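Researcher: We're teaching a course module on how sequence relates to structure. For the next exercise, students receive a sequence and then see the predicted structure as tokens, so they can try to spot secondary structure elements on their own. Here is the exercise chain.
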Amino acid sequence: MGGRLTISCGELRRLYLEEGLGLATLAARLGCSAPTVGRRLRECGIRTRSGRFRACEVSPEVLARLYLEERLALRVIAERLGVSVSTVNSRRRAFGLPARRGTRPAVRAAAEPAEEGAA
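Model: And here is the predicted structure for the students to work with:
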């Protein structure tokens, strides 16, 4: 993995900006480390993205609907919003939404078939 990364600025710009590849993905593809890719991006004058996830712009009402009413998993909510699971969980706590623990008895009972006439 030694030596200088020899990818043109144009190709690097295309992969990073147009295709949206991340530093780790580019590093794996180019056979170098992510910091090396980051350094080459700076050398080429390409601004790096600020982080893996964008800011979570979700209202308390939307999060309450997804989490409490639709009972979606945090992972599913995070995927829908394009943020991390920890971001969704942090917002849940900040909005004062209670943590769910398992399945509610009413939901579990409604999901089980009724046993009519069973002995």
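Model: If you want an answer key for the exercise: The helical segments are 9-18, 23-30, 34-43, 60-69, 74-81, 85-94, 105-111. Residues 105-119 have pLDDT under 50 and may be disordered.
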